[in-house]
């Protein structure tokens, strides 16, 4: 499976995926390309340091669809079949989602459907939940709303700031995303409505 990863920032989930693939923990996956919409994204250098091609596709005042058309072209030119969003800070339009239908994954720092959108860790602390976590899900036309592949939970402590909670969740993100990618690359699942069901449950 040829994988492309979209980032906008530091790229720690991208490096977690790349390292898992390099260590043989994601059979069948090959990371073809990392693309950022921000030229200053730290993740670009981290990708190159791992020998992965890293490109920038900026929005540059174009419409979302024009930007995504270029993005699709760049990904298709590398035969990308599966797209992983890893801190990519733009909403994808139906144009992109339709092009890679059922082939786009995202990671979100909450137990969806709780706290979609921005600043999920702050939302969790302010809401007073006792448990939060991360979710890897397929991307559809809804905001953080597609079928859930994997979730990992963490406690929320009385002393937590949004940053402290974010760090605890991030540790789990780095385990959850490679696990989800491995499942999707194995093809050992089917999507039934909103449910992602493993075909061979142990
Ligand atoms: C992560 O918390 C991820 O869940 C969210 O954006 C953050 C990206 O961090 N979508 P990084 O760039 O992967 O380090």
Write the layout of secondary structure elements.
Blueprint: E1 2-7, H1 12-22, E2 30-36, H2 42-49, E3 54-56, H3 64-77, E4 82-85, H4 94-99, E5 104-108, H5 120-127, E6 131-138, E7 148-155, H6 162-186, E8 189-192, E9 195-198
Parallel strand pairs: 1-2, 1-4, 2-3, 4-5
Antiparallel strand pairs: 5-6, 6-7, 8-9
5-O-phosphono-beta-D-ribofuranosylamine (GRF) binds next to α1, β5 and α6.
Please provide a written account of the structure.
The chain is α/β, with parallel strands linked by helices. It is built from six helices and nine strands, in the order βαβαβαβαβαββαββ. Helix 1 packs parallel to helix 6. The chain starts with a strand and ends with a strand. 40% of the residues are buried. The model has no long low-confidence stretch (mean pLDDT 97). 5-O-phosphono-beta-D-ribofuranosylamine (GRF) binds next to helix 1, strand 5 and helix 6.
List descriptors.
202 residues, alpha/beta, Rossmann fold, 6 helices, globular, binds 5-O-phosphono-beta-D-ribofuranosylamine
Tally of extended strands? 9
Oligomeric composition of the shown chains: single chain
Range of strand content: 15-25%
Mean pLDDT across all amino acids: 97
Intertermini distance: 24 Å
Largest sheet: 7 strands, mixed
Shape, per Cα inertia axes? globular
| Assigned CATH class of the largest domain | Alpha Beta
- Please compute the radius of gyration using only Cα atoms: 16 Å
What is the name of the CATH architecture of the largest domain?
A: 3-Layer(aba) Sandwich
> What name does the CATH topology of the largest domain carry?
Rossmann fold
Q: Number of helical runs?
A: 6
Series of secondary-structure elements, N-terminal to C-terminal:
EHEHEHEHEHEEHEE
What ligands does this structure carry? 5-O-phosphono-beta-D-ribofuranosylamine
Structurally, the number of domains stands at 2
Q: Give me the secondary-structure category.
A: alpha/beta
In order across it, which strands form the biggest sheet? 3-2-1-4-5-6-7
